[in-house]
Amino acid sequence: MRAAWYDRQGPSSVLQVGELPTPEPGAGEVRVRLTRSGINPGDTKKRAAAFTGMPYPRVVPHSDGAGVIDAVGPGADGARVGRRVWVHGAQSYRQFGTAAEYTVVPEALAVDLPDAVSDDLGASLGIPGVTAHRAVFGDGPVAGSTVLVHGVRGGVSSLAAQLATWGGATVIGTLRTAPATAAPLPGVAHLVALDDDPAAAIGRLAPDGVDRIVEVAFDANADLDAAVLRNLGTIAAFATHSDRPTFPFWPMLFSNTTIRLLGSDDFPPEAKAQAAADLTTAAAAGALSSHVGAVLPLERIAEAQDAVDGGAVHGRVLLSID
């Protein structure tokens, strides 16, 4: 099969494209013939050794994708052969991800993709969708609440805003600066620019404070979050610029703030299963969308990963596998 891989960590130039043996599914596993591979910032960080060293002698990157089940191993449901699926966690604690014609995953990680949902959207769910779901629903239902979502154009934050709205919440989204156009963003009821007294703007929209915050830059936004979060509110953070962020301890303590940190690879299995089910249901209902900024062929994986790192492309970057 055609695949991309790296045998050592470093810049995108360590990526190679060529032929590897087609994998066979083991017990409880399914094999997916992929049409799309989704790239996340975590994939490029793994390649660049931002987290750990090489976990395996060779890594086929990327955890997310979409395709069709073409074979199953012992104990897996043979009736699923031929079904379209979206894949998540393919390279989470595993050697072979979705940057290939085929990937093999435990059956639960290949989720049936409804006919009305495109492969592009399916490949865009995965880690961003599961993380967004945990950020929004990790502390229970959100119906009737107000959820503040920072960086609402990002992959995780955009899905979080849409999931919160699907769950019955009112969403306030933030951007660094006011957009040049007033085009609506999916799931966002109110938009606030962080460069224009955001605490006052959010206070006018939520006089009693927001109930939950989906946080993409915990270190940068900690003071603002403390100012606008209601008593017993939750900050669900999935990213920070500084790996040792400071935050206003006493204001958060007196507000009984819960800080939930989100590492999607290690969510409880039942949380991942519920996220997969809800994401599929919401997508089938037309409640989810994902802006795809670029679809590049497998052979251009280095360029695609650089686009994710450099932010040159607005929206998700996918690989086309065919």
TrEMBL record:
Organism: Amnibacterium soli
Domain Enoyl reductase (ER): start-end pairs: 10-319
Keyword annotations of the record: NADP
Protein name per UniProt: NADPH:quinone reductase
Domain of life: Bacteria
InterPro entries noted in UniProt: ADH-like_N, ER, GroES-like_sf, NAD(P)-bd_dom_sf, Zinc-ADH_QOR/CCCR
UniProt keyword NADP, yes or no: yes
Keyword NADP: yes
